[in-house]
Amino acid sequence: MNGVLNLVSVGPGFADLIIPRAIAALQESDVIVAYDLYLRWIEPYLEGKEIHTPPLTQERARALLAIEKARGGAKVALISSGDIGIYAMAALAYEEMREDDTFEVKLIPGVTSANACASLLGSPLSHDFATLSLSDLLCPWEWIEHRARHIAQADLACVLYNVQSAGRQEGVYRVLSLMLESKAPHTLCGVVKNAYRPGQEVAIYRLDEMMSLKFDMLTTIVIGNRFTQRKRGQIFTPRGYNDWSAPDLAVAPAPVLPEHGVWIFSGTSDGNALAAQLAKSGASPVIVSSATEYGGEIALKDCPGVALWSGRQGIEARRQALVQSKARVVLDATHPYAQIMSAQLIELSRELGIPYLRYERPATPLADDVIRCASPRDAAEQAIARGQRIFLATGSKDLATFLQAPGADQKQWFVRLTAEPEFLQRALDLGVPRDRICAMQGPFSAAFNSALWRDWQIDCVVTKESGAAGGYAAKAAAAHELGIALLVIARPQLDYPHVSETFDGVAQQLVALQIP
Ligand code: SAH
After folding, report:
1. What is the pLDDT of residues 330-382, one digit of tens each?
2. Secretion signal: which residues (predicted)?
3. Is the CB of residue 413 less than 8 Å from the CB of residue 392?
4. Which of 13, 222, 330, 388 is found 20 to 30 A from 345 (Cα to Cα)?
């Protein structure tokens, strides 16, 4: 009797995503070889069959076993979740088969994680896309990075499989930062866990927010391209190429900028004040770079005489602009919590051989009744443990960390944000009701804070150690007056080559570098 080897795909989870042809193949088979977990979904078709379940790690043994049975004349079904031809058992079976084997081979396709997860996010893969597995069990890690770099440079939408496991924690952040080198930080992404299985979770983030998330092996990441948009709480990528060179994209052409200047990366009131002072007192031209158009407008008003380079420019555009304008020094006066930006600037200066200086506003000493938190994640946990009506003065970037933390749905959340449409949209997408959003540019007085928090009956406030320019003291005073818990997220620790806490310190550093 001639055996049959059915290579059967059973989809992401629930039985209604198994195609009828897969069911027919299961029914036809006498022997089933599968990983335990998958048996649950195909249980109705298992009765009376010989079942083998070698452990997940022994993939080759599973393939060999199925082949041996087929060689012996049995009708065998070897099973994988998703599609058996995608990061799964089919290739192993082909590797182990011999040219002179006579059993019949039938491959039954299935819904793979890429399109299962995409369907839960909207339609992010509607134009060209790539998939990348981050598992280096069967492939050297350098290849994975090499491919990630090319995917990012081509601005392909992409799907990351095997994202993070207990033994592989760092790789995903490495790949995300490679993506950030060529894709814009606001590129829309989706994170899907347990698609079409119990415990399904679906969330949308910007690419730069992904660096602070934790993932696992049940998760798939989808990264959009420059055209990916939001609508109705979902994301989609339009078909076709649109206007590839439209502005505000990852790599916009560098504008003409003064040469041999001092570059100040700002976006904060004290960064602008520093720029204004240097423009007035120094002989070198000053170029201010701010991440938003609004920041640019403010800088133009606050710093007469500087050249401006604003809007979200990717690292590639920054590299070009610094090289073309022959920058003399990179002065990093970004927000104390903008650590991704600071890390990029340090790296870029090193690569281009341009001196890097850091200006960081002094931190305010914290009072004894303040609760210190190591990270946004830690603050989310502590806030949920202590508060019922929780006020977030932490900015828009970390909102998801709070609003999607375990237990967050049992709390009432109130947020204060800068009035950027994109920030508001993020809060709304995360389900914050309109009457719990205060959208206004700071700084805020202690009186304003305490009136707002009293009216909203806030019992817990979360903020950052943002120093005087960030209005920290006015928040601490109001929380103290109302007797409510104040949680403060610690500044991220970066290994800065040079740090000055005063404008004079910066001036001295410039003199030491012989910059007029
Ligand atoms: N053959 C499978 C992929 C196996 S690799 C397929 O075609 O889908 C295993 C990886 O797939 C996991 O680490 C995860 O990234 C992804 N994955 C599998 N099932 C998933 C599900 N239900 N939801 C989200 N991701 C899933």
Report:
1. 999 998 888 888 999 999 999 999 999 999 888 878 888 899 999 999 999 99
2. none
3. yes
4. 222
- CATH code given to domain 262-363+495-512: 3.40.50.720
Q: Residues 121, 204: contact at Cβ < 8 Å?
A: yes
Distance 12 CA to ligand 1 centre (A): 7
Strand residue runs (E) in 226-306: 229-231, 234-236, 262-265, 286-290
Pocket flag, ligand 1, residue 177 (CB < 6 Å): no
Confidence band, pLDDT 50/70/90 cuts, at residue 250: very low
Residue range(s) of every CATH 3.40.50.720 domain in the chain: 262-363+495-512, 371-489
d(CA 81, ligand 1 centre) in Å: 7
Query: How far away, in angstroms, is 3 Cα from ligand 1 center?
Result: 30
Q: Does domain 115-236 have CATH number 3.40.1110.10?
A: no
Distances (CA, A) of 286 to 92, 273, 435, 514: 60, 12, 42, 15
Per residue, the 3-state secondary structure of 398-457, as one string, reads: CHHHHHCCCCHHHCEEEEEECCCHHHHHHHHHCCCCHHHEEECCCCCCHHHHHHHHHHCC
The number of residues in the chain equals 516
Identity of the residue numbered 105 = V
The mean-pLDDT minimum among 35-44, 372-381, 382-391, 409-418 falls in: 35-44
pLDDT tens readout for residues 445-465 = 999 999 999 999 999 999 998
At 107, the pLDDT band (50, 70, 90 cuts) reads: very high
Can you tell me which atom of ligand 1 is nearest the CA of 85? 1
User: Does residue 249 have a pLDDT over 60?
Assistant: no
Domain with CATH 3.40.1010.10 in the chain: 4-111
Is the minimum distance from the CB of 195 to ligand 1 under 6 angstroms? Answer: yes
When pLDDT is cut at 50, 70 and 90, the band that residue 300 belongs to is confident
Is pLDDT at 10 greater than 50 in this prediction? yes
CATH homologous superfamily, domain 371-489: NAD(P)-binding Rossmann-like Domain (3.40.50.720)
Find out whether the beta carbon of 131 lies less than 6 Å from any atom of ligand 1: no
Q: What is the CATH number of domain 4-111?
A: 3.40.1010.10
Distance separating alpha carbons of residues 297 and 493, to the nearest angstrom: 30
Residue spans in the chain of domains classed CATH 3.30.950.10: 115-236
* Distance, CA of 375 to CA of 397 (rounded, Å): 13
